[in-house]
Amino acid sequence: MRVHLCVVGRLRAGPEQDLLNDYLTRFDRTGRALGLGPSTVHEVEDKKGGGPKAEAPLLRKSLPQNAAVWMLDERGKTTPSPDFANAMAGLRDQGQGDLAFVIGGADGIDPDFRAEADRLISFGSMVWPHMLARVMLAEQLYRAASILAGSPYHRS
User: Fold this and answer.
1) Is 155 a member of any domain?
2) What pLDDT score does 156 carry?
3) Contacts with 30 (C-beta within 8 Å, 6 or more apart), sequence order
4) CA–CA distance from 74 to each of 67, 78, 83, 101, 118 (Å)?
5) If both were cysteines, with which of 38, 59, 121, 145 could 31 make a disulfide (CB 3.0 to 4.6 Å apart)?
6) Domain of 75?
7) What is the number of structural domains in the chain?
8) 4 or 129, which is more confident?
């Protein structure tokens, strides 16, 4: 199952980009034998600054056809890492070809677009910078693959 990060904004070179690349590389290596990956990042940018309403069509366009869509949103459900891993494995086992994770811009995701999500995920009640949320998501993808592979990376 291919994994897509559909995100608002361009991540410039720096520590966040380095961490993102590291965790996605780890995920791709670990996930390959499990039928997870490869991962791809799709960056969109509303150059006119129209906020979530203007970003929504750009994000929609970045979604692969027939992909399951999981959005990161502060109103979403917090999920333990093993449950996150099992949910991904469940989609894969049902024959889902693509899973797209959506991360909105600084002002979040348009409510109408958010209503189209198959699942809303939250990293807790705190709000995180959307660029850092990419890194956190990439780490959770690697953690999920590690859990499914039986690796000792995740300790509960």
Assistant:
1) no
2) 67
3) 142, 145, 146, 149, 151
4) 22, 9, 18, 14, 15
5) 145
6) 2-149
7) 1
8) 4
- Cβ atoms of 142 and 97 within 8 Å: the answer is no
Residue 154 in domain? no
Is 135 part of a structural domain of the chain? Answer: yes
Tokens 């670990």 correspond to what residue? 30
Positive or negative torsion for Cα 143, 148, 151, 156: positive
93: CB partners within 8 A, 6+ apart: none
- pLDDT band (50, 70, 90) for residue 16: very high
Which amino acid type is present at position 131? M
Q: Give the domain CATH number at 50.
A: 3.40.1280.10
Within 13 Å of residue 118, how many CA atoms lie on the same side as its CB?
A: 15
Q: What is the Cα–Cα distance from 95 to 126, expressed in whole angstroms?
A: 34
> Taken in order 131, 149, 78, 120, is the CA torsion positive or negative?
positive
